[in-house]
């Protein structure tokens, strides 16, 4: 009743409005009304003519979508009549014609959820779907996905739908609407169809949309989507992109396929550079590179043997080869008279801090002002002098710092480390062993010098020497999954006589070597170690490294952790929850899984009894999981702010570290402010963690604001030795590699996550959860685990023979172009430089010359340039 | 016989022959010839670890043309220095103080910041410290009462303790003795000790010390405290009505700086305070009349204490109320125009020397600038020499012993060495803090138990005019010349 009255009202209104219509419109309206009458005429010929004309009117008008097409508007009142008449018609071509028109009219008329447009479309004559306009197709796609879901649940056949899907996808793919096509196919779970429809003009946009939507898809769907993207890239011979997806999927079979599908040597070299940056161990075989010499050259690139050379080229180009002393970093002269006056006596702690600062700042440069200075007249060189200016375990870090300074340069690194092997002091030997590991970090060598040198020390009596060797092996062979090492290290885990710290470091090293491998044997060994250790040992801070070692095995491997997580429930209650949190956070690290973030937040919201420690790793876990993509990252930062306000002290201590992980080497201003505030916290451990994190977020950026903050903190805390130590370390981190390095485990435009890099940072952060015993205590050398994440933040262009090539590039802020039509600009606010150049967080580079063609679409790290055969020198 | 290549550091030795029938030691000797690295220091990487001297080649599986890697150097082996460095963390506490560059703080024992800041200021006077060291237990003469003696001993011990520790000191003993000697400091309010006026504490403590130290019987310096802190004043008392004029002398331990509407600077305040009106009986008029008293300084102390008269007794509120007016004070104070004519004459000669030396320094600098490259070296060395000469006397004041007129000459110029500040609205409330210049030239703010380093510029900013810390007592140290 009400509806009726409404209708009459509307009619009246319409009539009224009719008077406003222009003559043209009025004519059209009357015309259409005439057609509607004619359609209901008894004469089929007349009917046909009317339908044809109506169809003509609609089609010509729907081409422009700026306003409601007039024919549709005028036909609205007649939709009911036409529908009723349609039902009375006998099956004929005419009926199909009418169905077509009704299907279009349903676009505006159909009630929500009725899906009449789809219904009439299926009953209609078929034909070119695009002729009815874009909006119609889009609407139809929406209805299909609803219908599909309904039919799936009722198990009704879907063939007719799929036929329509084919048409729609083809239409979308032709008309720059790839996202719509992909969305529809995802709804109807038939992405394979995509491969038929992509062509060389639209596959890039399609794949971009696929890969970026994968982040937001649940469960196995995301893998499926990436699979399709991989196949499309392979189909169009976009091998670097295909390789990236293969690496993202951690599918070595796919990596191999990329190598075998391509037979261009320079391109293969580029693949090797990508693999090397990702930091995985990968052996080429004959199938992948037939020629022995070529294979050796390629394998060299994967083994990162050229990294040191490239890094030094960059340093020379930027003119930062001059070594820097810790004082250059502290810049005490900028602090008015506040710095402690009594520099007359050496402070062991300050010297240790200087050792670390020196190591981080001069990392990889091969020269510094403390450790590598040539011997002077005195019997032993001044490098030894500095070494012995450190106390006890401090000497371990000092000796190992030489490894950091000579990072990646295995040949001269080993030569310079050699002298420390003959020192009788066990702390120095331990440092030398660790240093060998650090030098070899990320570098593989056929001779396996690290294994040969360190191998025989892991069973020595002295625990500090053992730890040095074990940790060195872990760093040198991270991700190598070396069987030989496993058989050497695993027995230590289950040796009841081995001291706890040795066992803890063994677990960490095995976790590193088998990072993300889900290796059963290693997992078993660590689990047994956790079960065997006495309850009192499990309460010691270092015992927490055992669950971490276990967690690293499942880094980013999601569900694969579940069996082990079940087993962990049987552990001693002292460590059970800690283990649970660590496993969960490691397994979902870098996935952005929102459910897991919520789960972890839930654990943090509880107020605990004293002595429970598992909330620390839970807070870190939030950061590890959420760091995967920008949106989740922002949300996590906000959640952490809440935890700061409502959380218990053990949570507050972990929050700065989590913030540090989220923004590692990416100093976001809001996070910087939060950390600056926390660095003055009354709880000294919160302050220490905040200071460390200031270092982490500014790592390798030379960020002036953070440097200023830290300088002020150094005068604020000049009396508090522990905090001052942390401030110094943070200062060293900010100027890491004199600003040429980054700690960000994400690379290739934030798409890929290097597992070894993340593992290194995670270990360091777990160590920082207990500042007092670990970092400020006697295990400060755990800071060296950061070396796993250290990478030059450069763009180095090389020619096909790996010789540096200087070309102009534009560097600017990256713009998200996912789902945008056409060829939008990918960077904004750019400046033009010549390579090699530094790339800051969020920067993207593009070539500013047509002369060369890059072999990788992502300009990061080493990129091989090929001469453009079509390039003509412009005449001016 | 197989040939391999050996990589050593950056060098590559091609085609090194291995006699597989010989032990590996022979191979090492071959490499010794090539590299100069003694066999026992060679580390050669082969499958499964390092090459052992007695290893059998057949079991190692070294292949023809394989690349081996050798590590090792012929460099000298590092030896630990015979004597390791001494670290601050290992030092006994007294030595850590030296390294720290300033002495310890004092714990607040419940509103005792007035006492802490007073002690910290006086503690910065090395001459007082040495005078106290000479004061012995047994040396107590009968003129000094028991409590004064105890307070002196307590002061000595406290100074000692401050010098020796890094961590803050709790001045328990001193606090107890001080209350015993001056019970007014033991006033309680609601069961806690009340905040007191630091100036009162300062004056009383100096008075007690002067009493006990002057009577030690040590013949050398019977009047230590007077030489250190005493200011001789000569006053002309003049009555305008009767035209009477008389002069009197007195000795005080501090100059007052009166604060009124016209006073913006310490100097003005001091001048103001040296003129006063008093009413007394005039013998000539036979009734009381207004006398004008004008004082001048006739004898200068080693340490000039200036008190800002910031508090006055407000009857309505029954408390000492503070004047917040900003009164600037200089880092370098010249009191020449406050001195009597006699003293001025005495001061003229040393002041001239001082001026000359300063002028010389400036002049030399100017000439250095103007003179070109020729005979620059000579001038440089000249300048160094003279600046050394001129630098010494102004800085080097003998820390041992009490200065006597025989050793040094006063110049009438004083340098700021300690400031005692007050924050708050009345003398019996708020917070007292001492700002003391260390021997190193650095300023330390002693806020009870926490010493905080400060900049010299910030010290002169404590001149008042707000609710921030403002100077209440300033202590200046004389700049002297040797005779």
UniProtKB/TrEMBL annotation, chain A:
Residues 1-24 are annotated as: Disordered. Residues 1-19 have a biased composition (Basic and acidic residues). GO terms for biological process: proteasome-mediated ubiquitin-dependent protein catabolic process; regulation of protein catabolic process. Residues 818-871 form the 26S proteasome non-ATPase regulatory subunit RPN1 C-terminal domain. Residues 32-334 form the RPN1 N-terminal domain. It holds the Pfam family RPN1_C. One of its GO terms (cellular component) is proteasome regulatory particle, base subcomplex. Keywords: Proteasome, Repeat, Ubl conjugation. Transmembrane segments: none annotated. One of its GO terms (molecular function) is enzyme regulator activity. InterPro entries: 26S_Psome_Rpn1, ARM-like, ARM-type_fold, Proteasome/cyclosome_rpt, RPN1_C, RPN1_N. The keyword Repeat applies. It comes from the Eukaryota. Component of the 19S regulatory particle (RP/PA700) base subcomplex of the 26S proteasome. The 26S proteasome is composed of a core protease (CP), known as the 20S proteasome, capped at one or both ends by the 19S regulatory particle (RP/PA700). The RP/PA700 complex is composed of at least 17 different subunits in two subcomplexes, the base and the lid, which form the portions proximal and distal to the 20S proteolytic core, respectively. Belongs to the proteasome subunit S2 family. Acts as a regulatory subunit of the 26 proteasome which is involved in the ATP-dependent degradation of ubiquitinated proteins. This is 26S proteasome non-ATPase regulatory subunit 2 homolog. It comes from Castanea mollissima.
UniProtKB/TrEMBL annotation, chain B:
Residues 2-71 form the Ubiquitin-like domain. Residues 104-479 form the USP domain. Keywords: Hydrolase, Protease, Thiol protease, Ubl conjugation pathway. GO terms for biological process: proteasome-mediated ubiquitin-dependent protein catabolic process; protein deubiquitination; regulation of proteasomal protein catabolic process. It catalyses: Thiol-dependent hydrolysis of ester, thioester, amide, peptide and isopeptide bonds formed by the C-terminal Gly of ubiquitin (a 76-residue protein attached to proteins as an intracellular targeting signal). Residues 364-382 have a biased composition (Basic and acidic residues). The keyword Transmembrane does not apply. Its EC number is 3.4.19.12. It is an enzyme of class 3 (hydrolase). Belongs to the peptidase C19 family. Interacts with calmodulin (CaM). Recognizes and hydrolyzes the peptide bond at the C-terminal Gly of ubiquitin. Involved in the processing of poly-ubiquitin precursors as well as that of ubiquitinated proteins. This is Ubiquitin carboxyl-terminal hydrolase. It comes from Castanea mollissima.
């Amino acid at each position: 009743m009400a509806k009726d009255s409404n209708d009459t009202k509307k009619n009246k209104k319409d009539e009224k409005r009719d008077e406003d219509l222009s003559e043209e419109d009025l004519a059209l309206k009357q015309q259409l009304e005439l057609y509607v009458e004619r359609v209901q005429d008894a004469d089929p010929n007349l009917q046909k003519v009317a339908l044809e004309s109506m169809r003509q009117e609609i089609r010509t008008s729907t081409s422009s979508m700026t306003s409601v097409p007039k024919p549709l508007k005028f036909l609205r009142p007649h939709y009911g009549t036409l529908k009723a008449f349609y039902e009375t018609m006998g099956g004929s071509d005419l009926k199909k014609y009418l169905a077509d028109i009704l299907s279009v009219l349903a676009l505006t008329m159909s009630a929500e959820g009725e899906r009449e447009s789809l219904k009439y479309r299926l009953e209609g004559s078929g034909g070119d779907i695009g002729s009815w306009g874009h909006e119609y197709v889009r609407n139809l796609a929406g209805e299909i996905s609803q219908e599909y879901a309904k039919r799936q649940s009722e198990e009704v056949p879907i063939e007719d739908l799929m036929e329509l899907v084919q048409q729609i996808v083809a239409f979308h793919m032709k008309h720059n609407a790839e996202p719509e096509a992909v969305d529809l196919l995802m709804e109807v779970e038939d992405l394979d169809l995509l491969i038929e429809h992509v062509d060389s003009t639209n596959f890039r946009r399609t794949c971009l949309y696929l890969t970026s939507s994968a982040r937001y898809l649940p469960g196995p769907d995301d893998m499926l989507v990436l699979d399709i993207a991989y196949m499309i890239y392979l189909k169009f011979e976009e091998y670097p992109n295909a390789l990236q997806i293969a690496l993202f999927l951690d599918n070595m079979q796919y990596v191999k396929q990329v190598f075998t599908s391509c037979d261009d040597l320079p391109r293969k070299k580029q693949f090797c550079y990508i693999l090397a940056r990702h930091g995985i161990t990968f052996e080429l075989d004959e199938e992948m590179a037939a020629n022995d010499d070529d294979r050796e050259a390629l394998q060299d690139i994967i083994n990162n043997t050229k990294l040191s050379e490239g890094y030094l080229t960059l340093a020379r180009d930027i003119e930062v080869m001059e070594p820097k002393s810790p004082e250059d970093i502290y810049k005490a002269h900028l602090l008015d008279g506040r710095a402690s006056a009594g520099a007359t006596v050496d402070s062991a702690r300050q010297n240790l801090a200087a050792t670390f600062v020196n190591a981080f700042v001069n990392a990889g440069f091969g020269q510094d002002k403390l450790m590598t200075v040539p011997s002077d007249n005195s019997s032993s060189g001044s490098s030894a002098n500095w070494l012995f200016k450190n106390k006890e375990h401090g000497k371990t870090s000092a000796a190992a710092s030489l490894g950091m300074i000579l990072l990646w340069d295995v040949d001269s690194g080993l030569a310079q480390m050699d002298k420390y092997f003959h020192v009788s002091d066990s702390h120095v030997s331990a440092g030398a062993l660790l240093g060998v590991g650090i030098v070899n970090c990320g570098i593989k060598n056929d001779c396996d010098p690290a294994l040969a040198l360190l191998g025989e020390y892991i069973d020595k009596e002295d625990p500090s020497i053992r730890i040095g060797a074990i940790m060195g092996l872990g760093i040198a062979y991270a991700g190598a999954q070396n069987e030989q090492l496993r058989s050497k290290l695993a027995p230590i885990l289950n040796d009841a006589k081995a001291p706890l710290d040795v066992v803890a470091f063994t677990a960490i090293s095995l976790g590193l070597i088998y990072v993300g491998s889900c290796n059963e044997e290693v997992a078993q060994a660590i689990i047994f170690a956790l079960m065997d250790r006495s309850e009192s040992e499990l309460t010691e801070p270092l015992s927490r490294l055992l669950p971490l070692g276990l967690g690293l095995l499942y880094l980013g491997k999601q569900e694969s952790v579940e069996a082990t997580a079940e087993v962990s429930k049987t552990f001693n209650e002292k460590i059970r929850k800690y283990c649970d949190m660590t496993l969960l956070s490691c397994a979902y690290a870098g996935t952005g899984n929102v459910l897991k973030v919520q789960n972890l937040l839930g654990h943090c919201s509880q107020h605990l009894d004293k002595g429970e420690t598992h909330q620390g790793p839970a807070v870190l876990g939030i950061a590890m999981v959420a760091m995967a993509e920008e949106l989740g990252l922002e949300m996590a930062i906000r959640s952490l702010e809440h935890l700061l306000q409502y959380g218990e002290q053990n949570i507050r201590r972990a929050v700065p570290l989590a913030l540090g992980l989220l923004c590692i080497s990416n100093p976001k201003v809001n996070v910087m402010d939060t950390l600056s505030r926390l660095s003055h916290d009354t709880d000294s451990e919160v302050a220490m963690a905040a200071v460390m994190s200031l270092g982490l977020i500014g790592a390798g950026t030379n960020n002036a604001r953070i440097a200023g903050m830290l300088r002020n903190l150094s005068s604020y805390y000049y009396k508090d030795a522990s905090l001052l130590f942390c401030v110094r370390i943070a200062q060293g981190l900010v100027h890491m590699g004199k600003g040429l390095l980054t700690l960000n485990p994400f690379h290739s435009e934030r798409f890929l996550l290097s597992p070894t890099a993340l593992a290194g940072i995670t270990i360091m952060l777990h160590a920082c959860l207990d500042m007092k015993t670990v970092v400020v205590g006697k295990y400060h050398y755990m800071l060296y685990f950061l070396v796993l994440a250290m990478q030059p933040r450069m763009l180095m262009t090389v020619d096909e023979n790996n010789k540096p090539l200087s070309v102009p590039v534009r560097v600017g802020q990256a713009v998200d172009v996912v789902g945008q039509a056409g060829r939008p600009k990918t960077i904004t606010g750019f400046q033009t430089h010549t390579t090699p150049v530094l790339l800051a967080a969020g920067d993207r580079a593009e070539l500013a010359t047509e002369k060369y063609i890059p072999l990788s679409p992502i300009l990061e790290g080493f990129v091989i340039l090929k001469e453009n055969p079509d390039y003509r020198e412009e005449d001016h | 016989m197989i040939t391999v290549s050996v990589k050593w550091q950056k060098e590559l030795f091609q085609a090194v022959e291995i006699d597989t029938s010989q032990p590996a030691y022979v191979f090492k000797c071959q490499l010794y010839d090539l590299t100069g690295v003694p066999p026992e220091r060679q580390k050669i990487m082969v499958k499964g670890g390092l090459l052992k001297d007695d290893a059998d080649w057949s079991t190692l599986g070294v292949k023809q043309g394989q690349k081996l890697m050798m590590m090792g150097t012929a460099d000298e082996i590092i030896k630990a220095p015979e004597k390791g460095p001494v670290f601050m963390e290992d030092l006994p506490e007294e030595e850590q103080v030296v390294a720290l560059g300033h002495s310890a703080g004092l714990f607040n024992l419940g509103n005792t910041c007035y006492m802490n800041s007073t002690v910290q200021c006086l503690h910065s006077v090395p001459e007082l410290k040495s005078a106290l060291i000479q004061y012995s237990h047994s040396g107590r003469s009968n003129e000094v009462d028991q409590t004064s003696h105890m307070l002196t001993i307590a002061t000595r011990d406290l100074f000692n303790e401050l010098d020796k520790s890094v961590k803050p000191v709790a001045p328990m003993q001193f606090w107890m003795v001080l209350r015993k000697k001056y019970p007014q400091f033991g006033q309680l309010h609601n069961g806690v000790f009340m905040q007191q006026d630091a100036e009162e504490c300062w004056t009383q403590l100096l008075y007690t010390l002067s009493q006990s130290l002057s009577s030690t019987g040590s013949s050398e310096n019977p009047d230590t405290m007077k030489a250190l802190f005493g200011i001789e004043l000569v006053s002309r008392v003049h009555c305008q009505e009767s035209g009477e004029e008389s002069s009197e002398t007195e000795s005080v331990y501090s100059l007052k700086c009166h604060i009124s509407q016209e006073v913006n600077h310490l100097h003005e305040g001091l001048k103001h305070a040296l003129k006063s009106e008093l009413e007394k009986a005039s013998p000539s008029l036979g009734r009381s009349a207004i006398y004008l008293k004008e004082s001048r300084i006739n004898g200068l102390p080693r340490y000039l204490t200036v008190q800002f008269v910031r508090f006055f007794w407000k009857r309505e509120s029954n408390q000492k109320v503070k004047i917040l007016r900003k009164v600037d004070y200089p880092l370098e104070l010249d009191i020449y125009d406050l001195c009597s004519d006699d003293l001025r004459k005495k001061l003229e000669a040393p002041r001239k020397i001082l001026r000359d030396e300063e002028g010389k320094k400036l002049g030399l600098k100017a000439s250095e600038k103007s003179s070109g490259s020729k005979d620059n070296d000579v001038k440089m060395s000249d300048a160094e020499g003279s600046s050394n000469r001129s630098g010494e006397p102004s800085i080097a004041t003998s820390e041992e012993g009490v200065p006597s007129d025989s050793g040094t000459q006063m110049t009438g110029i004083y340098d700021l060495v300690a400031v005692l500040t007050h924050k708050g609205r009345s003398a019996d409330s708020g917070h007292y803090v001492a700002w003391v210049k260390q021997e190193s030239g650095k300023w330390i703010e002693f806020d009870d138990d926490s010493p905080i380093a400060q900049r010299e510029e910030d010290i002169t900013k404590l001149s008042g005019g707000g609710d921030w810390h403002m100077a209440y007592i300033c202590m200046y140290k004389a700049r002297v010349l040797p005779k």
